[in-house]
Amino acid sequence: MKLDEIRSKEELEYCVDMYMSQNDISFLPADRDTSIKNLKKAYRNDFVRVVRDKGVIIAWAWFLRINLPYTDKEFFQQYFYTSNCTGVKAYKCVIMLHEAAEEEAKRLKIRYLISQGSHMDPHCVFAKMLERQGWQRR
């Protein structure tokens, strides 16, 4: 498994399709064209990384620099995460992408890194994975 960037329009669309295939549109409406347009902007301006296995994208994450209205501190926040893996491979993807985000936050001199929960993870499995790596859940 290898950490990488999105390399083409087709890969960007593949990432969107991976997310769309897992999204429950009855709960959270999503539009493929809008998602592609927004990920294309993010790919140019934000921190977007993929994990490849034998050259195939198996997970991806998008992180943003944000400023919250109640503090003068800057945050680096996970905006999207998607994987089509399970088990140990899924765990490794989460860790690889978040370690890359930690390095980027350090490079940008941002002290706070946030990874939010998801409506698609009602048992907080994702948060538990990060907790095993020393993250705190609040």
**What's the number of extended β-strand segments?**
5
Oligomer designation? single chain
Order of the strands making up the biggest sheet: 1-2-3-4-5
Query: Biggest sheet, in brief?
Result: 5 strands, mixed
Poorly predicted segments? none
Average pLDDT number = 85
How much helix, percentage-wise, in residues?
A: 40-55%
> Per DSSP, what share of the residues sits in E-state strands of 2 or more residues?
25-35%
Structural class: alpha+beta
* N-to-C order of helices and strands: EHHEEEHEH
How far apart the termini lie comes to 30 Å
Q: Count up the helices.
A: 4
| Rounded Rg | 15 Å
**Rough shape?**
globular
How would you explain this protein's 3D organization?
With 138 residues, the protein is α+β, with helices and mostly antiparallel strands. It has 4 helices and 5 strands; from the N terminus they run βααβββαβα. Helix 3 (87-107) links the parallel strand 4 (74-83) and strand 5 (112-114). Helix 1 (9-22) crosses helix 2 (32-45). The chain is globular.
